[in-house]
Design a protein that fits this description.
Elements lengths: L6 E5 L3 H13 L3 E5 L2 H10 L3 E6 L8 H9 L8 E6 L4 H10 L3 E4 L4 H10 L6
Parallel strand pairs: 1-2, 1-3, 3-4, 4-5
Helix pairs in contact: 2-3
């Protein structure tokens, strides 16, 4: 998959966090869309059928990241979507719960740019 074709969805209720992730993703050639919660994220997925990965915060109003992951994984249309939790939730039980629900990767805040890029490389979305 060429990087210029990668469309990422950033879902976080923090405008500052969305801006940080957007900068990292644009730095590796991704296009981005943004949503402030899981419900907006689901709407965004309906509007854009070319989204390859969603970077999702856990703690958000209306629909949290865990609920978003479950909703996405319950829809066969989205079975190929990569899901990366990017969250302050550091308890191993939360990591296990998110991965069991269908998240592909889990990044704990605060993170470095390299951590995000390494995870994208693991998923095959960034060239090694």
């Amino acid at each position: 998959m060429s990087q210029s074709s990668v469309h990422a969805l950033i879902i976080d209720d923090s405008r500052a966090m969305r801006a940080i992730l957007k900068r990292v993703l644009h730095g590796v050639g991704f296009r981005t869309s943004e949503a402030a919660n899981g419900l907006e994220g689901l709407e965004c997925l309906k509007e854009h059928d070319d989204i390859s990965i969603a970077l999702v915060d856990w703690n958000m109003p209306q629909m949290n990241g865990y609920e978003f992951v479950r909703a996405v994984r319950s829809d066969p249309e989205n079975r190929d979507l990569w899901l990366m939790m990017v969250t302050t939730e550091t308890e191993m039980s939360r990591v296990v719960k998110a991965m069991a629900a269908g998240a592909n990767e889990y990044v704990m805040k605060p993170f470095t740019e390299d951590v995000i890029i390494d995870k994208l490389r693991l998923l095959g979305l960034v060239a090694a």
